[in-house]
Amino acid sequence: MDFTLKIWRQENRKAKGRFETYKISNISPDCSFLEMLDILNESLVNKLSHPVCFDNDCREGICGMCGMYINGHPHGPDKGVTTCQLYMRKFTDGETITIEPWRARPFPIIRDLIVDRTALDKIIQEGGYVSATTGGVPDGNAILISKHKADEAMDSASCIGCGACVAACKNASAMLFVSAKVSQLALLPQGKPEAAIRVQNMVAKMDDLGFGNCTNTYACEAECPKQIKRSNIARMNREFICAKVGSEESTKR
Amino acid sequence: MKLIQFASITKKIALASFGLFLLLFLPVHLGINLCLLREDGGEWYRNASHFMGTNYIVKVFEIVLMACVLLHIVVAILLTIENFMARPVRYKVKTKTKTPFMSRYMIWTGGIVACFLVLHFINFYFVKLDIVEGKYSASIEKVDKIFQEKAMKLQSGELNEKDQAALMAQYQAISQITPEKMDNSKKNMVNLTKEEVETYCGKDFKHAEPDFYTMSQELFAKKSYSFIYILVFLALGFHLYHAINSLAQTFGLSHKKYSPVIEWVSVIYAVVVPIGFAIIPLWIMLAK
Amino acid sequence: MNTLNSKIPEGQLSEKWTKYKASQKLVNPANKRKLDVIVVGTGLAGSSAAASLGALGFNVKIFCISDSPRRAHSIAAQGGINAAKNYQNDGDSVDRLFYDTIKGGDYRAREANVYRLAEVSNSIIDQCVAQGVPFARDYAGMLDNRSFGGAQVSRTFYAKGQTGQQLLLGAYSALSKEIKAGTVKMYERREMMDLVVVDGRARGIITRNLQNGEIERWGAHAVVIATGGYGNVYYLSTNAMNCNGSAAVQCYHKGAFFANPCYVQIHPTCIPVKGEYQSKLTLMSESLRNDGRIWVPKKIEDAQAIREGKLKPTEIAEEDRDYYLERRYPAFGNLVPRDIASRAAKERCDAGYGVGATGFAVYLDFKSAIERLGKDKVEERYGNLFQMYEEIVAVNPYENPMMIYPAVHYTMGGLWVDYELQTTIPGLFAAGEANFSDHGANRLGASALMQGLADGYFVLPYTMQNYLSDQIYQSKISTETEEFANAEKSVKEKLEKIMAIKGEKTVDSLQRALGHIMWEYVGMGRNRENLQKAIPMLENLKKEFWSNVRVTGDLNSLNPELEKAIRLADHIELAQIMAKDALQREESCGGHFREEYVTEEGEAKRNDQDFMFVGVWEYKGKDQEPVMHKEDLKYEFINVQQRNYK
After folding, report:
1. Range of the domain at C396
2. Is the CB of C85 less than 8 angstroms away from the CB of A45?
3. Strand ranges (DSSP E) for C477-522?
4. What is the pLDDT of residues C529-554, one digit of tens each?
5. For residue C556, what is the domain's CATH number?
6. Do chains B and C meet with 3 or more Cβ pairs nearer than 8 Å?
7. C107 contacts C633 by C-beta, under 8 angstroms
8. Which pTM value belongs to this model?
9. If you count residue pairs, one on A and one on C, with CB atoms under 8 Å apart, how many are there?
């Protein structure tokens, strides 16, 4: 298969970026999208130019490291997969593929298609945990958790932190990401003691970092490679209201 | 960048709450409007308008309602700006993500409705506030009553010369115009202009009210207006289509069993209410 | 002279760890604040160690190669984590878990370490539950278990097919909490470039900031290496792209001994290689072997026809199929341990019976399972795996047999550590896959997660204090000393040297060449002849690298080519000791299979008489041969037996 690639190139955070066009041919349909970029990069190195930089790691769709905006879709046109699990057979021969980095104020570009997503970690640091220190915890079966709740918590917890929800959202909102973590811990009894303060702190941090507001368009849900559901956002809203109205604890601790 | 210093979810809930109030008011308005369909010369409609215009509880709600309209619009605009600024560099390829119908265009459908609202206020609400001139009417009994009052006053002879002359003029004017102002289609009503209202009653509206019935009839007589009106309610329908669903989501009402119900309520509301409004100009057009 | 002191506490096996903890030295809270610890790597072991040490009150700096700890490859573990909870009342116990792990490791692991691992396994589950890890539960609301290869009890805890992810996120959340508390400082997108040793003790590291190429110095009272394994030496493996053994090699160069480099685990159920462009291999859960039947055509001409695309597997009659695992191992059938299943597949493919376009694949067939259980049941059990397979290969596994082939998966070898997980350099600790300690010659399924977390949560926080208690008189480590300056200088020189080569070969092509040598000659089945060939080939590759590699871009910016080149240089070095270690170990055990040392039936034949030791390699200098030391393994508490799965 042959493709024309339009790729965003930008040397560093401050440099002015531009699109560059590359032609690539003889790509096997079984080739993954990142392997296609590997092939392009090897040819660029052979021509003594700088390869296209992109984040990637596990290449099996679980680490959340990869992510680019391909032809108007975060992680490309295939549903429920990350960029590394996208195969070239999903494109048509001769197609022009435009590849852009995630675009959001809190995700500055580091180089080419690599963006800085540490903002997501900063939100987690505000409360995306149970404050249990090592040791001194009760037996795993001491607190029973209904299977239904445990399964739901698992579904929320399967977020890989790739940032596709932010990239997809027209407002660059991180609500799906934050709500997945808030939901997971709100569903489990272990997360309950800190629930009220957690949701307030995490939302406050999310706002401070410059993510947009949620307007319920659910683009996040549509593009999430792990199919995290929007009901998580509803749950977070509920948690937030309950915390603001019902709890005496307020944002900063 | 924050234009309003509240948590994003707080802002979202505020916007939804203002919207919720508007959602609750719409059926009330629709109920009044549907009175236009009665061929009673506007009796029910006038009564309803009179109630809405004079009841003190309604007047309190009117203030809340207007605040909600204003806040809903202002907050929506500010949030849209905030949201736009969250992505300073836009994508080159427009998004191809499939999202629920119209959810992305709330600000646009809302904007259309807001523009219409301005027109609507000029046509009706501002007339009531006496900012804009409209059409007025009073019942014959009322006109008669004023006539009698003025006659009594003239006879009492308590007035100085100047006032006496003015009152005399008003008295004569009323006695002259009553028969030709009579509108047989409307039961015992007299159509008045603003000037006439002032002439008869001073600036006192106690006895004459803006005649919304006539005004709406006249507006709907214009095809262009009816056309715009229907289009606006189409836009409102799209706006509402996402509204109730979205509201439930914002208030955290998501449940495997009840969410589908809310979904249906949302659809039904978004279809029934705008159709209810749009049916009026269609009816009037067809009736002619 | 044997320099290796494994510091195993005296006494009964079951009392060793308790006694150790009771008698070890501690650091008081006021002093903990003054002590700095560096942790390199943010996987299960690194994150959990940093979080636990931070919670104790030490000043921890943690270095992450990616943008976030959540990217670490621990996240990709699917199956589960073992613990001797005996919740199922099926006869499990710490002793049994210990025994299974030792046996699974083919009696090449240290008894005391493995026992400790089994002992703390239960605490890990409790810890993770407390962190909010959503383990699978049964309808009573209690933790659920599944069974796994190499064990007769159900002791594996799991969270859907994403146990590794959930455990890593648990450790990551504990780490995040400490970062917020200020006890741990996080440095992301940093790669360790060198270890700094001052007066014989590990005192810091040199890193490269991957975003801007800056070389940075960091000092600390102790350093923990938790950088995972070196499976990427084989180029194609199930490891992530950023996994590398570079940090371990740097420590090896600075005097840390490297143990058992030849022990590599090959996973039997991976999706086969499709073409030259392939960058990594995807693992399919081992659980597929519970219901799938593995076969190749009986007739070589059928295999030929399939490879040429003239014949479909579904067209081959039942009697023309060779279910070779069931044929060779009637008792265990398709459920033999990983190493045995892998070798059997390779044997068939080498003999010309392989299928797929390349001939390096065997069939994993669910036809009889679908007939027996119905499609729905099969979908319920394996639906997501089937979906993943179809996504990658574009073949529907319900209608056609899956194709699988073994791939490099895990390295049991690593930095040599004593009972305290301390390497031969005082103050340098190694945890998780980066050390060699617990799996012997072969790791059982669901034990990697257990070991990583055991090291991080429950071993290092104790044993490091024993070391650090002596360090309270040592003031903050200055990075302005000669040792740091020299280390930084040598790193810079090395990088400049690589950049200056400006040769013809891309890093990727050299990496593929290395992978090819390793897979062909130091792969699943090894023999003297091949290993002897591999050693000079690796030497040549090393020369080729240092004279002909092409790295574009520059030093002072984000440069993935340079990153890969640095890692490749270290991987070649590792490959060399792997080959040497494989050559010296004249027996077949666990993941190390020497074709010369087999039983009459062609099975692996261990030589306990001569090789019951850990092969520990010491670096002697740039152009010097490394020297191997032996740590003899003494089995005092269990009987050593031959593994038998027939």
Report:
1. 267-408
2. no
3. 505-506
4. 999 999 999 999 999 999 999 999 99
5. 1.20.58.100
6. no
7. yes
8. 0.94
9. 228
